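[SOLVED] Predicted holo structure with 2-acetamido-2-deoxy-beta-D-glucopyranose

Edit: marking solved, answer below. Original request kept for reference. I posted the sequence and ligand SMILES and asked for the 3D complex as C-alpha cells.
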Amino acid sequence: MKVVLYLIPFVSSVFSMMTENDMPEILCKCLSEKAGSITIIPADLILYTCVNKYLAETWLERYQPPRRIDPDTINWLRSLGRKVRGQEYNIRTKRQAARRVRREIRTLTDAQRNRFIRAVQELKDRRIGSTNRYDALASAHDGRALGSAHSGPNFPSWHREYLKLFEAALQEIDDRVTLPFFDSRLDYNLYDPRESNFWGENFMGDHRGVVSNGPFRLWRQRNGAYLERNGGNSGSMISPRGIRDVLSRRRNIDILSPWAARGRYGLENYHNAVHVWVGGSMLGVNTAPSDPVFFLHHCFIDYVWEQFRQRQTVDSETDYPFDQRAPPSQAPNRIMDNLETGKRNIDGYSNDYTDQYYRYSRSPTLCRQCRNRYPYLRCGDWFRGLCSATNRARITTFRSPIKNIKSLGIKKQFSTTINDSSRNKTSRKRRSTGDWLVYEPLIEEEIVSKTGRTKRSISSRRSNQKKRTSHITNMDSSMQNSFLLDGEPDIKRWVFIPVKIVHRRPSGLLFGTKVIKNKNIVDGVDVYSYNKYMNYTGEEQQAAYSHSFTSGSGADKVYVQVDGMSYNGKYIDYTIVDSRLPVSESVAFVAVKNPKLNSSISYISAYDSHGRICRPYCHSYRSYSNQYKTCSGVINLTEEKPKLYGEDVGEVTRLLYKSGKGKDFSRSDKNIFLSFYCDFHEMPWGKC
Ligand SMILES: *[C@@H]1O[C@H](CO)[C@@H](O)[C@H](O)[C@H]1NC(C)=O
Ligand SMILES: *[C@@H]1O[C@H](CO)[C@@H](O)[C@H](O)[C@H]1NC(C)=O
Ligand SMILES: *[C@@H]1O[C@H](CO)[C@@H](O)[C@H](O)[C@H]1NC(C)=O
Ligand SMILES: *[C@@H]1O[C@H](CO)[C@@H](O)[C@H](O)[C@H]1NC(C)=O
Ligand SMILES: *[C@@H]1O[C@H](CO)[C@@H](O)[C@H](O)[C@H]1NC(C)=O
C-alpha cells in the first residue's frame, strides 16, 4: 500500500517536477562536432569549450541586467589606451631602450616580484567609479567579450591588448613593474604540480578553496564572492610536448580555434586545461580575471604565441584566419569589445606590441638554463634534464590554513582530512605498492619540429623511474563553490539534488591486492580483476590527462558539474568511487538554482579526475520499472510535486534514505532523477 501511494505521483500526468529538456542547438552542435577528438584531447576540455561557447553566445539570456559599466571606468580605460598609444609615440624615437622585458615569475628577484604583487594589490585598493581598478579591468572580460575573445582567431589578439592594458594600469601605479608570466611547463615538470612554489604565500597563495593566504588572501570578486581555487582536481598544466606541438605549426589557422580545436596543436586547448586545473574563479570565463593568476597565465600564452609568430614563414600581421566557421564577432575589422581602445581585432596581430612595448625573456626550460641560477627553479624533478618549479615546502614553512580560516568565522576548514601541521613529507609520498596508470594522450610520439631549439626530444628523456611508482592523486582536496547565482553569492539561492554515479573499472589498472593461487602469486591480476564473468580488456576510447593518476587504494573522484542555462551560476562537486571494483556506485549532491526564484534549467555533466566524461541517464517515471534512459543532461527543475530536491543536504539525504532507521535504511533510487554511467568506452554525447 505504501509503495503504491508512493508511485502515484510518478504515473500521473504531471509525473515529475524534474524533467529533461533538449540540449540547446549550440551546445549539441559543438559537442557532436568535437566528439571525434575524444581520443586525442581529454573530453572535459571539449565540454569546457562547448559549455563556454554556449554560455558566451547566450549571455544576454542570463545577465539581468547586462554588464553595466560606469562612465568613470570607461574614461579610465580610454586613458589607459591613450597612455599605451602615447608610449608608442615616444618609443619610436628611442625604441630599444624603452622596450619592457617580460620574464617568467620564478626568474624575478624577490624585490621585483614583490613590486609586481604590490602594484596588483594597489589596483584592487584604488577606487574607480562604483568599483576598483582591478575589478573594472576584470569586468572587461565579461559580456560581449565572452564570445568575441574566445574560441576563435581573436583569442590571442584580444588578450594581447587586454594584457597591455593591465600592464599599463600596473605601470600607472609603479612604472618599474612589468607583467611577468607563469610558464606552467615548469609546474608540469614537477612531480606534484600542486606543491609548486607558485602557490606559496610569497607568490599566488594556496589553491585549496577560498584563497586564504598569500597576497590575495580573502580577496573578493567584483560580485562579492570570494576568490577561490580548486587546484589539481582536473585539468593540466601545459606539457613541454604540447608547446612543441604548437610551435611546430606555421600558420595561425593550424593552432587557433575553431580550426585547430580538435587536435593537439590547438593553443586554446592547452590554455583551457590550466583554467580547469586551477578551478574555482578561474573556471568560469566571466569570473576568471578575478584571479591574478589569470594575467600571468595569459601572459605565458602570449609568450608562446610570440614564439610561434617568430617562427612563421608568412606575414604574421596579416595571417588572421577568418571564415564562416569563426564567430562573426571575430571579424578582423571589428572593434575589440569592452577594451575601449578602439583597436580592431586584427590590430592585435600587429608587430607593434613586441617591436615597441615589450619583449619576452626566454623562459628557462633545460637544466643548463636554470641550474643553480634561480632559487625557485630546480633541475629534473620529474623529467630528467628539464627545469621545474621548486616545491613550496622547500622555500617557506607551510602555514596551516586552519589558522587563517578563523577570520572567515569558520571553526575548522577540514573536518575529515589530514591534519596539516602534523603532515609529513613521507606520508605524502603515496604507498608504492599499488600500480598506477599514466595517461599519455597529450604527449604521444610524433616527429619533433626540426626548427625547434631543443635538440633531443622530451620523450627520449626518461622520466625518473623511482618516482613514477609513487602516487599523486587529488584525494586530499575538497571542493569549494562560490555559490554565486545571478551575481549574488548565497547558498539560499541554491537547492541540492542527488546524482547517481555508476563507474566501471577502467582498463590498464592493477592494484596491490594480489591473488595467491596454489601458493603462488598470479601475475597481471589483482583480486578485483581476477574473474571470469566480466571482461575489462576493452580500452577506453577517451583520452585522459597525462599528469593524472589513480590512487593505489582505488579511490578516485567523479565530478558532477552544473552550468546554469536559465541563470548565471556554476556548481561542481564530486563523489568518490572505488576504481578497483568492476562496478562502483555512489551518489553526488550538487546544487542547482532554487526553483522558487525562477526558471531553473541546468546542464549537468560528469567527468573523472582524468578528464574523461560520463554519459547522462534520466529516470523514466512513465513506466513502473525503475529504469534510466540516456538523456541530454539538461534538466528543468520546478516547484511541482513530488519534490526531488532538498533545500540543504540533509533534506536530500531524507529523499534517499527515508527514516534512516532499521530496515528502511536502503536507498530509494526513485528519487534520483539523474544518473551518469562512466565506462569511458562509448561516445559520451548522444545525437541532437
Ligand atoms: C594537528 O596535529 C598537531 C600535532 O600533531 C596537534 O598539536 C594539533 O592539535 C592537531 N590539530 C588538529 C586540528 O587536529
Ligand atoms: C615523519 O616521518 C618520519 C620518517 O618516517 C618520522 O621519523 C617522523 O616521526 C614523522 N613525523 C611526524 C610528525 O609524524
Ligand atoms: C572480452 O571482450 C572482448 C572485446 O570486447 C571480446 O572479444 C571477448 O570475447 C570478451 N570475452 C569474454 C569472456 O566475454
Ligand atoms: C523571474 O524572471 C522574470 C523574467 O525573466 C522576472 O521578471 C522576475 O522578476 C523573476 N522573478 C524572480 C523572483 O526573480
Ligand atoms: C520547465 O517546466 C515547467 C513545468 O513543467 C514548464 O512550465 C516550463 O515551460 C519548462 N521550461 C522550459 C524552458 O522548458
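OP edit: Residues 1-14, 394-470 have pLDDT under 50 and may be disordered. Thanks to everyone who chimed in.
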